[in-house]
Amino acid sequence: MPEVRLHGREEEQRRIAGFLDRAEPDVPGILVVGGQTGVGKTRLLSEAARHARQRGLSVHHPRTADLKALVPAHRPHSPGDRALLVLDDVEALTAGELNTLLRTVRQDPAPPPTLLIARAATAQTTPCAATGARVDLLELSPLAGGAVHDLVRDLIGVTPKAGLLDAVNCAHGNPRLIVELVAGLVEEGRIGPGGELIRLTPQQLPARVRAAVDEHLRQLSKESVQLLRVGTILGRTFPLSQAAAMLGAGTAALLPALDETVAAGLLTFADDGVSFQQPLVWRAVYESIPQTVRAALHQEAQRYAARPGAPAHDAADLGLVELGRQEGAREPDGTVVPGGAGTTGAIRTLLRTGHTESVVLLIRSALNRRLSAREDLVLRGLMAEFVLAVGHAGAAFAADRAGPAAGSVPLTDAWADAVIDQLAGAWPEAARTAAVVLSGLEWAEGRTAEAVRWGRRAVDQPLPPVPSAGAPYPALALAAKLVALGDLEEAEHLLARVSAEHGDAVHRLAADLVRAAADLRAGDLDAARRRARDVRSAASDSGLPGLAAWASATLCRAELLAGDTGAAAGALADCREDQVALRTVPYLAIRCHWLDVLLHAARGEVGEATGLLAATPVPLPSSRWLLLSEPGAAAWFVRFSRRAADPALADTALRTVEKLAADNPDAPAVRLAALHARSLYECDPDGIARVAAEHGDAWTRACAAEDLTALLDERQAAPEALPQASSPRHGTWLTRDHVGRMTLVGAAYQRQPTPDRTEVALTDMEHTIAGLVARGLTNRQVAQRVHLSPHTVNYYLRRIYGKLGIRSRVALARYVHDHGLAPEGALGRL
What we know:
Elements: H1 10-21, E1 29-34, H2 41-54, E2 58-60, H3 67-73, E3 83-90, H4 95-105, E4 114-119, E5 134-139, H5 145-156, H6 162-168, H7 175-187, H8 207-217, H9 222-234, E6 237-238, H10 240-247, H11 255-263, E7 267-270, E8 273-276, H12 279-288, H13 291-306, E9 329-330, E10 336-337, H14 342-352, H15 356-367, H16 373-389, H17 393-397, H18 413-423, H19 429-444, H20 448-460, H21 473-485, H22 488-501, H23 505-522, H24 525-541, H25 545-562, H26 565-575, H27 579-584, H28 586-602, H29 606-615, H30 624-629, H31 633-644, H32 647-663, H33 668-681, H34 685-694, H35 698-715, E11 733-735, E12 742-744, H36 764-774, H37 779-786, H38 790-804, H39 809-819
Parallel strand pairs: 1-4, 1-5, 2-3, 3-4
Antiparallel strand pairs: 6-8, 7-8, 9-10, 11-12
């Protein structure tokens, strides 16, 4: 690898230069440089020593921290010389030892030396209390994005492409890991001549990366290494209690190992547990475990995850401690189920044991406390589920909040009391409501199988002789979840039941909105827009602005997919008119915020979209609800992170969607969404092609097809290089700028047989592009006509040339004229 400059350390170099310039003749100065292993302490000290020599200091690099060796090492050549003593990677040099050193050297006639000390990442003490010495501390942070870009450019000699930078960002700004990763990719031929990443998946990291991480782990205690290895099995972020259980130790026994790994910059604390700071280390440690051992550890982790918790403390505020037995609650069939921790654990336990009214009280009590944004959203969402399920849908969506909720939202004490009154003594109505709310809770926490199971149980509950006004809601709620998961057939069956059995306007209109969501999944934009407009008009006429807001949000999404940002902006403005409705149904407010981000991104307003993402009360890249309801959202965040130069967006979305995929192995839509995001992040064309071929969501297929085109175009690679099984099915969708107009085209990436030059089969899109080019249009003009990007048009043009055996636009125009090809092609029939 070539010699690289020191990047991203300008401020630190200024501080060191100032420290050296301020050195006093009779007062020893000490600068302690700290930071995680590999962050660049040694390189910075080397630069500091070079600057010190330029200032006339004699520089000494003793090889040992033994005090007897240090004393003669610092001695200058003459009494007037100044010396700089550089101690690299000191494990532990206490204040007492420093004082001993300073007292010793002060006996000499020479001025006391200036000390530069690079403290080891795992050192538990910092030498900062030496008597009579001037001590400064300098902590090195990971490199920022610009410095990472420049470092990679120096390493490979060309400007790196976005996919390569995504892979490098897995090193979390650690210079040593970046150098090892890039060097390893170069050695294994995985970086192209244009600075593009050939592929990181699906096999392994470069061998030298794994060797570097192994060397790092050898510096840690055995207990720390065990914690890291078990942690990788549990995920990028994992609960410490589960790691302790797998290691057969108490949580307190893991604290020394936790301290050491956190000090080394390997682990950090997260809201939902302990997290690996660097995805690269996480993956390298995981790959270091033999595959057979990994399989056994995964099985063991699943057993521990299935063990019931101890939710006794969750219900204590309600005086219902007996419900939180150590063995957990029981289903009617006697099955033991876990309770969970925190307020949601208490809610789960109480609902499963029939204390539905107590759950309303618990949610109301919890909402009066200070909660995290996500907890607040989940609890308000559950309260909305209660309100809708017990028959207050009309009032919730109406303009006039009649009765106890006038002028407020259904989270007030009055609304809670109304819900309790409705539930009191109403079994099985209370059982239906409990199942609906449990389904909503499981969905909010990302467990789709449990959400659908409880949703089906709610639908299957027998109705009383006179069903309540909320009877249709369980079927609607389940249908919406099934649409998100791609099961459109069962969803339509439920919606047909609602339409046949319940004639009230509220639920009929709500059913049409769920159908509109299904239309979007199937790619039928015209049907989705028509339904959304009809519902918006009918809801406005019926005094149901909440439903009108929901319809406007659906219409906005359809207009965005159609590429009409003006109409989308108008629909979004309509959605926001009813602020009470947005508070009544909290997830509708999150959806509006997401649509606003997409709208600004579609307009090319990257800064505004980034600002909106930063301003959301709940971070959208980690929103399980959003990633479930929008299967292409995780990949969108990966894509947008490149435009916004914010790798944290991609990292957060990847971590969340892969956790969802791991928790929902039987949900193909979730699994393919995670594959799409990961493959896009790591420039894996096979994975992207599989998503374009298999995913049931039209937008996700469209984005995957466009991603594949862009990736192949970047590499100047032909589609025939892809395996036959990876080619998308006929009739895939492409989008302009990934959120613009969706245009049905032929299977642009299917392997084509060698054509007979007398009768060449062009796809409809190739037919159209050939005709437009033959008329003299430029690639950009053609792109505007067919609603694709110019580079995609260029890709199609190269395919056409290959099929026809020609090399120029003139030859293409002659071919079109001789064969009578019309320029409209497929698009003229849409």
